[in-house]
């Protein structure tokens, strides 16, 4: 459904200057490179992480040494070292981004070793979790607070609270520096305990989105989830006790779903009474 819009963008670019190379990247391209390269007729594409590979491609093009291959694999298939990079906030309109978006996005890790049946994260980022140094993460938050007045952050990690110790270390560094900021994140109800939420709250967490996906054991098993309905309920209760707002994402209709399992999920959602429910079919 997005293809025609991209085709129109590329058509306009070609009209402006047919010689300018067009490069594709991103998650959809990384999952379906042959199909998208054919439909969009681009010059190059970068599979996977693009921070280093795009710069290398631009350098090669600038010196008149274009690569022979159209599909580029960064770092010969190796993963990016996240501790060697930092976003160039000065190259975007950070003030407007925060003013209109309400938060600034940060990433503290990449990769996921869980095997949820529907998920493409391990294909895109790898199945090994690569963590940024917690001190560097908080340095970036403090910089954005002092430089741009940004005091609300969204951790875009697929699972912020795994490994548990990494997220807690970030929180302890925020607390140590007494930074007056707030944040939210994607989290799993499978890696939780009461003490973790208390630390989150002290560090400025005011909302969490749980990738629960189902609140019936049939649904959880179908999607290869490793946690239980009881754990989801405990997560919600501990958030409530720490005045952290809660969102649950749900997927209805996985293989094996029944009328009874749908009703069980709905009944458990009412019991948990989260602030927000995001339901997909």
Could you give a short description of this structure?
Helices cover 44% and strands 16% of the residues.
Can you describe what's shown?
The protein has 281 residues and is of the alpha/beta class. Helices cover 44% and strands 16% of the residues. It is built from 12 helices and 11 strands. It has helices at 3-16, 27-31, 33-40, 51-62, 94-101, 121-125, 134-148, 164-177, 194-202, 217-222, 229-241, 259-272; strands spanning 23-24, 44-46, 71-72, 104-106, 109-110, 130-131, 152-155, 182-187, 205-213, 245-251, 276-280. Strands 4-7-8-9-10-11 form a 6-stranded parallel β-sheet. Strands 1-2-3 form a 3-stranded parallel β-sheet, with no helix packed on it. α9 (194-202) links the parallel β8 and β9 (205-213). α7 crosses α8 (164-177). It starts with a helix and ends with a strand. The model has no long low-confidence stretch (mean pLDDT 94).
């Amino acid at each position: 459904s997005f293809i025609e819009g991209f085709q129109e963008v590329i058509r306009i670019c070609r009209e402006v200057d047919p010689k300018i190379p067009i490069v594709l990247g991103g998650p959809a391209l990384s999952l379906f490179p042959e199909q998208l390269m054919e439909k969009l007729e681009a010059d190059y594409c970068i599979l996977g992480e693009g921070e280093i590979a795009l710069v290398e491609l631009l350098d090669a093009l600038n010196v008149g040494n274009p690569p022979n291959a159209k599909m580029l694999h960064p770092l010969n298939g190796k993963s990016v070292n996240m501790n060697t990079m930092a976003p160039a906030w000065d190259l975007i309109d950070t003030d407007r981004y925060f003013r209109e978006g309400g938060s600034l996005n940060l990433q503290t890790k990449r990769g996921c070793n869980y095997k949820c049946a529907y998920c493409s994260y391990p294909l895109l980022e790898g199945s090994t979790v690569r963590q940024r140094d917690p001190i560097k993460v908080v340095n970036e938050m403090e910089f954005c607070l002092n430089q741009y007045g940004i005091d609300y952050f969204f951790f875009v990690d697929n699972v912020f609270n795994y490994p548990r110790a990494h997220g807690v270390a970030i929180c302890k560094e925020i607390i140590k520096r007494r930074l007056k900021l707030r944040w939210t994140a994607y989290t799993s109800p499978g890696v939780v305990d009461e003490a973790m939420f208390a630390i989150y709250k002290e560090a400025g967490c005011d909302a969490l989105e749980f990738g629960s996906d189902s609140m019936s054991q049939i649904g959880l098993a179908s999607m290869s989830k490793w946690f239980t309905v009881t754990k989801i309920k405990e997560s919600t209760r501990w958030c409530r006790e720490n005045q952290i707002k809660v969102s649950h994402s749900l997927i209805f209709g996985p293989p094996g779903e029944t009328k009874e399992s749908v009703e069980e999920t709905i009944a458990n959602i009412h019991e948990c009474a989260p602030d927000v429910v995001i339901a997909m079919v």
